[in-house]
Amino acid sequence: MPCLNEAETLATCIRKARAAIAEIGLEGEVLIADNGSTDGSQSIAEHEGARVVPVATRGYGAALIAGIDAADGQFILMADADDSYDFSHLPRFLAALESNDLVMGNRFAGGIKKGAMPPLHRYLGNPVLSFIGRLFFGVPAHDFHCGIRAFRKDAIQSLHLRATGMEFASEMVVKAATLGLRIGEVPTTLQPDGRSRAPHLRTWRDGWRHLRFLLMFSPRWLFFYPGVVCTVLGLAISVWLIPAERHIGHLNFDVDTLTYSLGLLLIGVQITVFAVSAKIFGTRQGFLPPNPTFERILAAIPLETGLLIGCALLATGLGLGIYAVTEWHAAGFGHLTASRMLRFTLPSAAAMMLGVEAIFASFFLGLLQIDQR
Predict the structure, then answer these.
(1) Cα dist. 322→62, 184, 196 in Å?
(2) Most CB within 10 Å of its CB: which of 142, 148, 290, 340?
(3) Where along the chain do its domains lie?
(4) Is 243 exposed, middle or buried (0-12, 13-18, 19+ CB in 10 A)?
């Protein structure tokens, strides 16, 4: 149990946890990862027979990481020390661990008592974040941020979890899913906590931190899919508008729309480069799993290919620019129809910018792929 000034409820939680261990007849311990409590929580824990592990680094994740490392058991059940979770559900978690590495509690399946969870968390925050977790990472859990969960110690330690704050709860599930651990789910309950003070959780701040974490751990959804959509849409509209003005009903689309579509194309390509860069960097740093298909595609496109594409785009842009100048020369360097000339100059500028992007992106991606010892 992570603990920060939980004197009001800590003794109750420890007694319930010890009773649950005694009921199943297995050897176990209650471990309190204390995060610098100043209300006497440490002495309460020791008096109740728990082992206290002092954790100097502040944060929910920091406390749990230290507690997991210090635990002697093969299986670990983690839960908050605010008397909101039912420790008597320990047997169902242990049973599920026979075929899983991580077992999540599901409060929505087991029951949430009145006043135990704010409506904003119950009907918006948790369902939305849980849906994003299933969509982005294929996590088979419907209560992504349930605070009670059980796991095999060696399996969780193999994930090398790093988040010291509230994001730890998301990091554990995301890494477990992306690195192929077996994840199960059992129903559990949630009751109003027994504290008189406000909880440490802050709705909007911590909700955003969890969402930000999910996005950063999924370059596909954060960068790749938006980048591809913008690129394809921008290219399609640009190709449609470059030859001539277009009409749909009473609506006219001309060079103004072409300007924005080419801008959308440039944005899309830039975001896609971010996607590839983020995937390479994340894989090399070990917090994103390797993707054999991605690696094969990357290996099949050497740096020189990107340079050739960039040079071809630059040459195309310069060629269009030269043609535009010859058109201006033919008119005696006088007045030209803006609509006609912009159909040359806008694609010319866009092609040159894409060429420069391709050349420098190729070098940058090559730098990211340099082998490291």
Answers:
(1) 61, 64, 75
(2) 148
(3) 2-216, 219-368
(4) exposed
Check: CB of residue 36 under 8 Å from CB of residue 56. yes
Q: What is the pLDDT along the chain (373 residues), one digit of tens a residue?
A: 999 999 999 999 999 999 999 999 889 999 999 999 999 999 999 999 999 999 999 999 999 999 999 999 999 999 999 999 999 999 999 999 999 999 999 999 999 999 889 888 888 888 998 999 899 988 888 998 899 999 999 999 999 998 898 889 889 999 999 888 999 999 999 999 888 776 666 778 878 888 888 898 899 999 999 999 999 999 999 999 999 999 999 999 999 999 999 999 999 999 999 999 999 888 887 767 778 888 888 888 888 999 999 999 999 999 999 988 888 777 777 776 777 889 899 999 999 999 999 999 999 998 888 875 4
Report residue 268 as tokens: 């899309």
Report the largest interatomic distance among the alpha carbons of the chain, rounded to a whole angstrom: 97
Q: How many CA atoms lie within 13 A of 333 on its CB side?
A: 0
Quick one: CA dihedral 21, 197, 172, 182, positive or negative? positive
DSSP-assigned states of every residue in 161-191: ----STTHHHHHHHHHHHTT--EEEEE--B-
> What is the CATH code for 2-216?
3.90.550.10
Q: What's the start-to-end Cα distance of the chain, in Å?
A: 38
Rounded Cα gap, residues 365 and 351, in angstroms = 20
DSSP readout, 309-331? Answer: HHHHHHHHHHHHHHHHHHHHHHT
User: For the chain, how big is the Rg over CA atoms in Å?
Assistant: 28
DSSP state at residue 89: G
Q: Is the dihedral of CA 184, 189, 194, 199 positive or negative?
A: positive
CA distances (Å), origin 247, targets 241, 252, 254, 257, 260: 10, 5, 9, 12, 17
